[in-house]
Amino acid sequence: MTRCTRRLPLIAALLGLAFAVPVQAEEAYDPWPGLVQDIFNGRPMNDGSAVIGIEMPYRAEDAAIVPVTLRSKLSPADSRRIRSITLVIDRNPAPMAAKFELGADANVSEISTRVRINNYTDVHAVAELSDGQLYVSKVYVKASGGCSAPAGKNVEEANSRLGKMRYRQFAREEAPASRVREAQIMIGHPNNSGLQMDQVTQLYIPAFFINQLKLTQDDSPVLSMEGGISISEDPNLRFTYVSNGAKRFRAEARDTEGHVFRNEWDVEKPGT
Question: Where is the signal peptide (predicted)?
Fold first, then answer.
């Protein structure tokens, strides 16, 4: 065995160590403390296990459309209410995925949507209550590449559906007299992340997404969303709320290019 040959195992071991250290450092790095500073101005975070629930699959089937459900866990006897919920995907390029403002009289108790996940990551839900305190819960999701995944529709198809909205209602198990409703709003929009590549030109597609959504029953606020690039193509919100007896349900959405989309529906005949 030559001297060079005898040195090969040592060289390989040193190279392996050199490459392993950055990987271990990356895995050990926790972006959450910095995000608390950046997004919430360093405000104290309380344990939210009895306040806000967050449900996501541990291993996502498709990183571009990962389902997430946010659910109030406040006791009916609790005099506080949730004012807002901020969804933070820690390792996404733009971590704040969405901020939901809940109507004061709508009693929204559950919100579901679909998001993009770019790397294995913690996902935090931060609820601000009427007492001014922040409460946080988190889950861990194994998914990657969602922000750069190609759009599911071609440009022509996406443009033909731009801003088209649908409103649906779902039957609830409560007695017919109950005013609790479960509804869904769907908006046709590519919600380009800015990280996707045009497969023909090989150029990045500019970011273009719904950044504001307001839902009202007549003129009373139900739910509003400040969205970012992490919300999946064709934004989809499913939620519960308490009816105030309004006959019309209204939606207004705005995107990053200044388009405004509006629609309204007869509450008793939702449809398209």
Answer: 1-25
